[in-house]
């Protein structure tokens, strides 16, 4: 193919913008795959929650075992090289490839953007910046390609140059769109059909015994669900705007149905904002800090009433409804739970409630909790985050077997018939 005329400024700008994409993708890869190294929430926090980290902990940030960010890094690295090569020796076929590569990027980003802003409570802002980078690269590639139509080359040559990349680009676009659509589709929970194999119990219990031991004084704690006689005691530290805390609550509710009468859960509070949590530095994030504190204070007060469990889970369900934790919504939840709103509202503003909240925060400090959710089971500190469902149920099965033996497993199987 003949060389193509080009505007160096467009191509050099393409190189610079692509490099910015490489930098952003590298940051995202670090946040999603190595969050312990990349702890800064700069450019990610929009409501006191690091949306980039939250997305990284979700299955929506991966294609199989690979973070999507690594594909973004390779994508922008390729465009950097392509723009640079085109600036050195312009070619019509490379200009076409640049254009269709950016079109593929726009399609992929459209799907990722839909997932980011509709399927995740706290959007990943760095991800949104990469969408803008892809759009800018498309404009640059399109402008560059249109120059070929100003040349004196026959239209047949233009079509010939563009045909192969067009077909390849279209096929790749549809392929990636299909993959990303499947990623966005709801995923079924991992099946856990029955109790753990008895032969696996000793190993599970040995690993559990090796976890860090912590101790709490449970006297006076009223924010509890489950059986008073439950011998599996769980403490869950959470924040009401934390998506993974919602998932942890759903997991615990499922666990209590799996082993009724054996589990009791203390719902503890660690609001992720300095509005009511002095362990957190920085200015309060309005209005999100108020919502976090509203939820914690209201749940503490609801612990004095029989409708506590329904109220507590109702506050978390506001996430699913994408509603803020305002007094208006709390009043509706309290009425539905049979809790007098006037009493609850007065209690929320009391000094006694703040002291109870500080008790939770102090307990979290003692065991060095910095993120939510964090679960403690029978005095053993689990890794931060939502436990793997299969592993968690196997742990509970093992603790039940240790206490009751095969009789409990027989009872479980009888219930499932």
How would you portray this structure in words?
The chain crosses the membrane at residues 9-29, 66-85, 97-114, 120-142, 163-183. The chain has helices at 8-33, 51-56, 68-88, 92-118, 125-146, 155-184, 201-209, 243-258, 288-302, 308-321, 327-336, 341-348, 351-366, 389-404, 406-416, and strands spanning 62-63, 66-67, 224-226, 232-238, 263-269, 374-377, 380-381. It is α+β, with helices and mostly antiparallel strands and 417 residues long. The chain has 2 domains: 8-184, VKOR domain (de novo design (two linked rop proteins)), CATH 1.20.1440.130; 198-416, Glutaredoxin (3-Layer(aba) Sandwich), CATH 3.40.30. The strands form 2 sheets. Strands 3-5-4-6-7 form a 5-stranded mixed sheet, sandwiched between helices. Helix 1 packs antiparallel against helix 5, helix 8 packs across helix 10 (308-321) and helix 9 (288-302) packs across helix 12. The longest helix is centred in the middle third of the chain and has 30 residues, at 155-184.
């Amino acid at each position: 193919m003949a060389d193509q005329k080009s505007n160096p400024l467009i191509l050099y700008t393409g190189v610079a913008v692509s490099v910015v994409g490489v930098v952003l993708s590298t940051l995202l890869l670090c946040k999603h795959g190595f969050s312990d190294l990349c702890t800064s929430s700069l450019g990610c926090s929009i409501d006191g929650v690091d949306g980039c980290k939250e997305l990284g902990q979700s299955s929506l940030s991966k294609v199989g075992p690979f973070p999507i960010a690594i594909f973004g890094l390779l994508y922008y690295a390729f465009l950097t090289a392509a723009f640079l090569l085109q600036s050195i020796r312009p070619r019509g076929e490379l200009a076409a490839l640049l254009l269709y590569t950016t079109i593929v990027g726009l399609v992929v980003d459209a799907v990722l953007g839909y997932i980011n802003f509709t399927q995740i409570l706290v959007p990943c802002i760095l991800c949104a910046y990469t969408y803008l980078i892809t759009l800018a690269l498309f404009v640059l590639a399109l402008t560059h390609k249109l120059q070929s139509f100003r040349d004196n080359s026959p239209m047949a040559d233009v079509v010939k140059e563009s045909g192969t990349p067009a077909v390849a680009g279209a096929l790749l676009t549809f392929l990636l769109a299909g993959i990303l659509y499947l990623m966005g589709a709801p995923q079924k929970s991992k099946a856990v059909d029955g109790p753990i194999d008895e032969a696996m119990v000793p190993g599970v219990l040995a690993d559990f015994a090796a976890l860090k031991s912590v101790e709490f004084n449970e006297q006076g704690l009223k924010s509890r669900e489950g059986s008073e006689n439950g011998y599996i005691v769980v403490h869950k530290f959470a924040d009401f705007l934390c998506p993974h805390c919602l998932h942890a609550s759903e997991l615990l509710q499922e666990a209590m149905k799996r082993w009724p009468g054996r589990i009791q859960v203390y719902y503890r509070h660690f609001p992720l904002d300095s509005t009511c949590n002095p362990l957190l530095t920085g200015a309060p994030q309005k209005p999100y800090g108020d919502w976090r504190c509203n939820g914690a204070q209201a749940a503490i007060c609801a612990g004095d009433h029989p409708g506590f469990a329904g109220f507590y889970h109702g506050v978390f369900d506001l996430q699913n409804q994408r509603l803020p934790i305002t007094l208006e919504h709390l009043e509706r939840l309290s009425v539905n739970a049979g809790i007098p709103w006037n009493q609850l509202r007065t209690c929320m503003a009391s000094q006694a409630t703040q002291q109870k909240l500080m008790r939770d925060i102090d307990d979290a400090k003692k065991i060095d909790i910095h993120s939510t959710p964090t679960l403690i089971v029978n005095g053993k500190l689990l890794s931060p985050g939502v436990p793997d469902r299969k592993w968690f149920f196997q742990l509970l099965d093992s603790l039940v077997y240790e206490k009751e033996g095969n009789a409990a497993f027989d009872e479980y199987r009888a219930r499932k018939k």
